[in-house]
Design brief:
Layout: H1 6-9, H2 13-33, H3 39-48, H4 56-63, H5 67-79, E1 83-87, E2 95-99, H6 101-125, H7 127-145
Antiparallel strand pairs: 1-2
Length: 146
């Protein structure tokens, strides 16, 4: 890492978490690019694969992205017929996003690619260490969430 401030930055948990996320997402982005979707779009598609319609607010919260970013990504997914929006029959003010059949087929392929990427991470870092890291990060999130 260039620059003399890198060792000082690496002493901070938030910095290391960000750096790790960028490294992991870089590899995942390469794996997903073959299907023509970004990591963010794949997260949205995966969240929608539960078969329930999700409001944009709920979707943004679920995929850990700002609402405007989710809206733009969903617009692109709608343009590609991977998702669609439908007005709620009970609350006409609410619009939900749903996965289309084409989107469902894509999610299956994305899951395979993400699984292969996960296996590559395990090969590089070790399956046991990867599992432990995931559990520890989950515990950290739960602890800080209250």
């Amino acid at each position: 890492m260039p620059g003399s401030s890198a060792p000082k930055l690496r002493a901070h948990l938030a910095y290391l978490l960000t750096e790790a996320e960028q490294q992991v997402n870089r590899g995942l982005a390469v794996a997903l690019a073959a299907e023509g979707v970004s990591v963010e779009q794949a997260r949205i598609l995966r969240a929608l694969s539960d078969g329930h319609g999700h409001s944009m607010t709920d979707l943004a919260e679920a995929v850990l992205m700002p609402h405007p970013t989710v809206t733009k990504a969903v617009d692109r997914l709608v343009d590609n017929a991977l998702v669609y929006r439908r007005q709620d029959v009970v609350d006409r003010r609410r619009v939900a996003v749903y996965l289309s059949d084409l989107g469902r087929d894509l999610v299956a392929r994305l899951d395979r690619r993400a699984g292969a990427h996960h296996a590559a991470v395990e090969a590089a870092f070790g399956a046991e260490r990867t599992g432990r890291l995931m559990r520890e990060l989950d515990d950290l999130v739960r602890s800080l969430s209250g």
